[in-house]
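User: Can you predict the 3D structure for this chain?
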Amino acid sequence: MAMTRLRPASLWGAGALAGCALALAAGAASAAAPAPAPATATAVSTATTASPIASRPTTREAWTARVIVPVHTRSAPRAQARKTSKLEATAPYNRGPHVLLVLAARSTKTGVWYRVLLNKRPNDAAGWVPAEAVQVRKTPYRITVDLSSRTLQLFKAGKAVGRWSVAVGTPTNPTPVGRFAVSEVVRQDNPSGFFGTYIMTLTAHSERLSDFDGGDGRVALHGTNRASLIGQAVSHGCVRLVNAVATRLGRTVPPGAPVDIVR
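Assistant: Here is the predicted structure, written as C-alpha coordinates:
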Protein backbone atom coordinates (compact mmCIF):
# COMPACT_ATOMS: atom_id res chain seq x y z
CA MET A 1 0.00 0.00 0.00
CA ALA A 2 1.38 3.43 -0.87
CA MET A 3 2.48 5.68 1.94
CA THR A 4 2.64 9.45 1.98
CA ARG A 5 4.85 9.64 5.07
CA LEU A 6 6.32 7.39 7.74
CA ARG A 7 5.03 7.31 11.27
CA PRO A 8 6.50 5.71 14.41
CA ALA A 9 5.46 2.07 14.77
CA SER A 10 4.56 2.77 18.38
CA LEU A 11 1.63 4.90 17.11
CA TRP A 12 -0.05 2.12 15.14
CA GLY A 13 -3.76 1.52 15.52
CA ALA A 14 -5.35 -0.48 18.30
CA GLY A 15 -5.68 -3.51 16.05
CA ALA A 16 -1.92 -4.02 16.14
CA LEU A 17 -1.95 -4.14 19.92
CA ALA A 18 -3.79 -7.45 19.89
CA GLY A 19 -0.89 -9.26 18.36
CA CYS A 20 1.37 -9.01 15.35
CA ALA A 21 1.34 -9.60 11.72
CA LEU A 22 2.85 -6.26 10.85
CA ALA A 23 0.84 -3.43 9.29
CA LEU A 24 3.02 -2.01 6.54
CA ALA A 25 0.79 0.91 5.73
CA ALA A 26 1.35 2.43 9.16
CA GLY A 27 5.10 2.91 8.68
CA ALA A 28 7.80 2.52 11.32
CA ALA A 29 10.35 4.26 13.48
CA SER A 30 13.95 5.17 12.77
CA ALA A 31 15.89 2.57 10.77
CA ALA A 32 19.04 1.07 12.25
CA ALA A 33 20.65 0.70 8.83
CA PRO A 34 22.16 3.57 6.79
CA ALA A 35 20.47 5.14 3.79
CA PRO A 36 20.52 3.16 0.54
CA ALA A 37 23.70 3.35 -1.49
CA PRO A 38 23.58 5.37 -4.71
CA ALA A 39 23.52 3.61 -8.04
CA THR A 40 27.15 4.60 -8.53
CA ALA A 41 28.37 2.43 -5.64
CA THR A 42 31.61 0.70 -6.56
CA ALA A 43 31.78 -2.21 -4.12
CA VAL A 44 29.59 -4.47 -6.22
CA SER A 45 29.90 -7.73 -8.05
CA THR A 46 29.71 -7.19 -11.82
CA ALA A 47 28.69 -9.20 -14.82
CA THR A 48 32.34 -9.46 -15.81
CA THR A 49 33.17 -11.41 -12.66
CA ALA A 50 34.54 -14.81 -13.70
CA SER A 51 32.83 -16.63 -10.84
CA PRO A 52 30.21 -15.77 -8.20
CA ILE A 53 31.33 -14.02 -5.03
CA ALA A 54 28.41 -15.36 -3.00
CA SER A 55 26.97 -18.85 -2.56
CA ARG A 56 24.08 -20.65 -0.89
CA PRO A 57 23.66 -20.44 2.91
CA THR A 58 25.48 -22.93 5.12
CA THR A 59 25.42 -23.50 8.87
CA ARG A 60 28.52 -21.27 9.20
CA GLU A 61 27.81 -18.40 6.85
CA ALA A 62 25.37 -16.80 4.45
CA TRP A 63 25.51 -14.11 1.82
CA THR A 64 23.26 -11.07 1.54
CA ALA A 65 22.50 -9.06 -1.59
CA ARG A 66 21.74 -5.36 -1.26
CA VAL A 67 19.78 -3.98 -4.21
CA ILE A 68 21.61 -0.91 -5.50
CA VAL A 69 19.55 -0.19 -8.62
CA PRO A 70 15.94 -1.12 -9.47
CA VAL A 71 15.92 -4.51 -11.19
CA HIS A 72 13.47 -7.17 -12.34
CA THR A 73 13.89 -10.65 -10.94
CA ARG A 74 13.85 -13.45 -13.50
CA SER A 75 12.60 -17.02 -13.48
CA ALA A 76 16.03 -18.23 -14.63
CA PRO A 77 19.59 -16.81 -14.66
CA ARG A 78 19.39 -15.09 -18.03
CA ALA A 79 18.20 -11.72 -19.26
CA GLN A 80 15.61 -13.26 -21.60
CA ALA A 81 13.89 -15.26 -18.86
CA ARG A 82 10.41 -14.34 -17.64
CA LYS A 83 10.18 -11.38 -15.25
CA THR A 84 8.77 -12.41 -11.87
CA SER A 85 8.89 -9.19 -9.84
CA LYS A 86 10.56 -5.81 -9.62
CA LEU A 87 12.95 -4.90 -6.80
CA GLU A 88 13.53 -1.33 -5.69
CA ALA A 89 16.61 -0.10 -3.84
CA THR A 90 14.47 0.59 -0.76
CA ALA A 91 12.75 -2.11 1.29
CA PRO A 92 8.93 -2.22 1.59
CA TYR A 93 8.44 -1.66 5.33
CA ASN A 94 10.49 1.32 6.49
CA ARG A 95 12.19 2.31 3.21
CA GLY A 96 15.59 1.23 4.48
CA PRO A 97 18.15 -0.58 2.33
CA HIS A 98 16.64 -3.50 0.40
CA VAL A 99 18.76 -6.49 1.41
CA LEU A 100 17.93 -10.09 0.44
CA LEU A 101 19.26 -13.52 1.31
CA VAL A 102 21.26 -15.22 -1.45
CA LEU A 103 20.01 -18.78 -2.05
CA ALA A 104 22.22 -19.75 -4.98
CA ALA A 105 24.64 -18.41 -7.57
CA ARG A 106 25.26 -19.16 -11.23
CA SER A 107 27.99 -18.09 -13.63
CA THR A 108 26.78 -17.87 -17.25
CA LYS A 109 28.23 -16.73 -20.57
CA THR A 110 26.73 -13.29 -20.01
CA GLY A 111 27.71 -12.87 -16.37
CA VAL A 112 26.98 -13.85 -12.79
CA TRP A 113 23.45 -14.24 -11.40
CA TYR A 114 22.19 -14.64 -7.84
CA ARG A 115 18.98 -16.34 -6.74
CA VAL A 116 17.51 -14.36 -3.84
CA LEU A 117 14.68 -14.88 -1.36
CA LEU A 118 12.00 -12.27 -2.00
CA ASN A 119 9.91 -10.08 0.32
CA LYS A 120 6.60 -11.33 -1.08
CA ARG A 121 4.08 -14.13 -1.00
CA PRO A 122 4.34 -17.07 -1.19
CA ASN A 123 6.85 -17.34 1.62
CA ASP A 124 9.31 -19.29 -0.53
CA ALA A 125 9.18 -16.83 -3.45
CA ALA A 126 12.59 -16.37 -5.07
CA GLY A 127 14.06 -14.95 -8.25
CA TRP A 128 17.30 -14.43 -10.13
CA VAL A 129 19.04 -11.04 -10.35
CA PRO A 130 22.18 -10.03 -12.27
CA ALA A 131 25.26 -9.43 -10.17
CA GLU A 132 25.66 -5.83 -11.31
CA ALA A 133 22.34 -4.89 -9.65
CA VAL A 134 23.36 -5.96 -6.13
CA GLN A 135 26.14 -5.64 -3.59
CA VAL A 136 26.89 -8.95 -1.89
CA ARG A 137 28.28 -9.34 1.60
CA LYS A 138 28.96 -12.28 3.88
CA THR A 139 27.37 -12.65 7.33
CA PRO A 140 28.20 -15.25 10.00
CA TYR A 141 24.83 -14.79 11.74
CA ARG A 142 21.82 -17.07 11.61
CA ILE A 143 18.68 -17.26 13.75
CA THR A 144 16.60 -20.34 14.53
CA VAL A 145 13.16 -20.19 16.15
CA ASP A 146 11.75 -23.44 17.57
CA LEU A 147 7.99 -23.17 17.95
CA SER A 148 7.70 -26.36 20.01
CA SER A 149 10.05 -25.15 22.74
CA ARG A 150 9.21 -21.47 22.09
CA THR A 151 12.85 -20.54 21.98
CA LEU A 152 15.11 -18.52 19.71
CA GLN A 153 18.79 -19.29 19.14
CA LEU A 154 21.41 -16.99 17.66
CA PHE A 155 24.33 -18.59 15.82
CA LYS A 156 27.62 -17.02 14.77
CA ALA A 157 29.81 -19.00 12.35
CA GLY A 158 27.88 -22.15 13.25
CA LYS A 159 28.26 -21.74 17.03
CA ALA A 160 25.29 -21.00 19.28
CA VAL A 161 25.93 -17.71 21.09
CA GLY A 162 22.54 -17.20 22.71
CA ARG A 163 19.25 -18.92 23.48
CA TRP A 164 16.12 -17.24 24.81
CA SER A 165 12.43 -17.87 25.41
CA VAL A 166 9.99 -16.16 23.04
CA ALA A 167 6.27 -15.73 22.49
CA VAL A 168 4.86 -17.14 19.24
CA GLY A 169 1.63 -17.25 17.25
CA THR A 170 -1.58 -18.79 18.49
CA PRO A 171 -3.02 -22.04 17.08
CA THR A 172 -5.51 -19.89 15.14
CA ASN A 173 -2.82 -17.59 13.74
CA PRO A 174 0.39 -19.63 13.93
CA THR A 175 3.88 -18.39 13.22
CA PRO A 176 4.79 -19.68 9.74
CA VAL A 177 7.42 -22.39 9.39
CA GLY A 178 10.27 -22.33 6.87
CA ARG A 179 13.47 -20.64 5.71
CA PHE A 180 13.12 -16.86 5.86
CA ALA A 181 15.43 -13.88 6.20
CA VAL A 182 15.63 -10.61 8.10
CA SER A 183 14.23 -7.89 5.84
CA GLU A 184 14.75 -4.66 7.82
CA VAL A 185 16.06 -3.76 11.26
CA VAL A 186 14.10 -0.85 12.73
CA ARG A 187 14.94 0.77 16.06
CA GLN A 188 11.82 2.06 17.81
CA ASP A 189 11.45 5.66 18.91
CA ASN A 190 9.41 4.51 21.92
CA PRO A 191 11.21 1.53 23.51
CA SER A 192 8.42 1.26 26.10
CA GLY A 193 5.78 0.76 23.42
CA PHE A 194 4.10 -2.44 22.27
CA PHE A 195 6.94 -3.36 19.89
CA GLY A 196 9.68 -2.70 22.42
CA THR A 197 13.14 -1.58 21.36
CA TYR A 198 13.44 -3.10 17.87
CA ILE A 199 11.38 -4.55 15.05
CA MET A 200 13.15 -6.96 12.70
CA THR A 201 10.80 -7.58 9.80
CA LEU A 202 11.08 -10.92 8.03
CA THR A 203 10.36 -12.15 4.52
CA ALA A 204 7.67 -14.34 6.15
CA HIS A 205 3.95 -13.65 5.91
CA SER A 206 1.08 -15.11 7.89
CA GLU A 207 -0.49 -18.16 6.27
CA ARG A 208 -3.87 -17.38 7.87
CA LEU A 209 -4.07 -13.58 7.54
CA SER A 210 -3.94 -12.08 4.06
CA ASP A 211 -3.82 -8.64 5.65
CA PHE A 212 -3.67 -7.24 9.17
CA ASP A 213 -4.49 -3.73 10.41
CA GLY A 214 -3.90 -2.27 6.95
CA GLY A 215 -0.77 -4.27 6.15
CA ASP A 216 -0.03 -7.45 4.22
CA GLY A 217 0.32 -9.82 7.17
CA ARG A 218 4.11 -9.60 7.38
CA VAL A 219 5.73 -11.43 10.31
CA ALA A 220 8.54 -9.99 12.42
CA LEU A 221 10.75 -10.50 15.43
CA HIS A 222 10.20 -7.67 17.89
CA GLY A 223 10.45 -6.56 21.49
CA THR A 224 7.52 -6.16 23.84
CA ASN A 225 6.14 -4.15 26.74
CA ARG A 226 4.43 -7.28 28.10
CA ALA A 227 7.33 -9.49 29.10
CA SER A 228 5.00 -11.65 31.21
CA LEU A 229 3.66 -13.20 27.97
CA ILE A 230 7.05 -14.49 26.84
CA GLY A 231 6.99 -18.28 26.51
CA GLN A 232 3.34 -18.34 25.45
CA ALA A 233 1.47 -18.69 22.14
CA VAL A 234 -0.26 -15.30 22.09
CA SER A 235 0.61 -13.37 18.91
CA HIS A 236 -0.89 -13.14 15.43
CA GLY A 237 2.27 -14.78 14.06
CA CYS A 238 5.14 -12.55 15.13
CA VAL A 239 7.89 -13.72 17.48
CA ARG A 240 8.09 -11.55 20.59
CA LEU A 241 11.31 -11.08 22.55
CA VAL A 242 12.18 -9.42 25.83
CA ASN A 243 13.62 -6.02 25.02
CA ALA A 244 17.18 -6.85 26.04
CA VAL A 245 17.20 -9.67 23.48
CA ALA A 246 15.50 -7.55 20.80
CA THR A 247 18.19 -4.91 21.31
CA ARG A 248 21.01 -7.43 21.07
CA LEU A 249 19.63 -8.93 17.88
CA GLY A 250 18.83 -5.55 16.38
CA ARG A 251 22.39 -4.35 16.94
CA THR A 252 24.01 -7.59 15.77
CA VAL A 253 22.09 -9.37 13.03
CA PRO A 254 22.04 -7.64 9.62
CA PRO A 255 19.24 -7.51 7.06
CA GLY A 256 19.41 -10.54 4.78
CA ALA A 257 20.58 -12.94 7.51
CA PRO A 258 18.77 -16.31 7.42
CA VAL A 259 15.99 -17.08 9.91
CA ASP A 260 14.81 -20.69 10.18
CA ILE A 261 11.48 -21.25 11.94
CA VAL A 262 10.83 -24.90 12.83
CA ARG A 263 8.32 -26.90 14.85
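The chain has a mean pLDDT of 85. The CA atoms of residues 3 and 25 lie 6 Å apart.
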